[in-house]
Design brief:
- The structure is a single chain.
- This protein folds into 3 domains: 9-114, RNA Polymerase Alpha Subunit, Chain A, domain 2 (Beta Complex), CATH 2.170.120; 124-213, RNA Polymerase Alpha Subunit, Chain A, domain 2, CATH 2.170.120; 216-302, RNA Polymerase Alpha Subunit, Chain A, domain 2, CATH 2.170.120.30.
- Helices cover 12% and strands 51% of the residues.
- The chain is built from 4 helices and 21 strands.
- It has helices spanning 9-27, 67-71, 161-165, 251-256; strands at 31-43, 49-52, 58-66, 79-83, 90-95, 101-102, 108-113, 116-136, 143-151, 154-160, 170-176, 184-191, 198-199, 204-213, 216-228, 236-239, 242-249, 264-267, 274-279, 289-294, 297-302.
- The strands form 4 sheets. Strands 2, 5, 8, 9, 10, 11, 12, 13 and 14 form a 9-stranded mixed sheet that branches. A 5-stranded mixed sheet has the order 6-4-1-3-7.
- β11 and β12 (184-191) form a beta hairpin.
- It starts with 8 loop residues before the first helix and ends with a strand.
Length: 303
Amino acid sequence: MAYNPFGHFWLKAIAVGIAVLLWFAVGGEKVVERSLRAPLEMQNIPDGLEVVGDSASTVDVRVRGSSTVLGQLVSGDVVAVLDLGTARPGRRLFHLAPDHVRVPFGVDVTYVGPGTLALIFERSGLKRVPVVPSVDGQPAAGFAVGTITVDPAEVDVVGPESALRDLTQAVTEPVEVAGATVSVRETVTIGVPNSAARLKMPRQGRVLVEVVAVRTERLFPSVPVRMQNLRAGLSATSSPSNVAVTIRGGEEVLKALPTDAVRATVDLAGLGVGRYTLPVRIPVSTSFAIARLEPVQVQITIR
């Protein structure tokens, strides 16, 4: 059958009309540029390395396209992707170009900055540390906090080697014992005080705080404040240098305690030169409970 160019004439005419209308609609739109902040996505970080310190989470991007297309952009449509597959320990420089930016069809990237990013990498490590339970509040009058136990007693922490070096413990969410007359048992989340480190696996712990009836008290009026985790090459002084600690427990047990049985400590981990107001910690003992501590905070000067 011979080809008839006028076959289905009206359908062809409608198609041509629609194409012309679309051409005018698109061709008549203005091409504009817009500046925006785009998230920076880091990919292919080598196993055993971690990015440390403050690093950029967003970058400046300029995009070009029709006003309609740019007006429809939503969060996540424009993402800068940085390939870190060549990273090594130390301070490294990475170039960022427009072709590293992921954009929808019909959008062109004309600029991305900064053009060079400096990132610091450290080897990652693992460290097992004890879990120290946190307790808030005081039991009812005539009662005191006794033995405190937590399960698990230790957890694995991962992170950059520098963060793990100064890390000595993991902590729990506080267990509230204010006004308690019986032992308190709670399931709480375990975490680490250094934000650069993290638990190898998210964990919860079961904390048991024994609340016991008060029996006998003994005052230790001048307990020296000891410094813990002071950086090498620095010195520190406490004002006051001694605190008063009152303990509770069995009469015979308290009488037998030596004068150095109670210790008062201040944790200086991560602190540099300066003046700080820090809490005094009394290590938990199974022989006695802490009734009072005065003062609860001291002024620390690090030189």
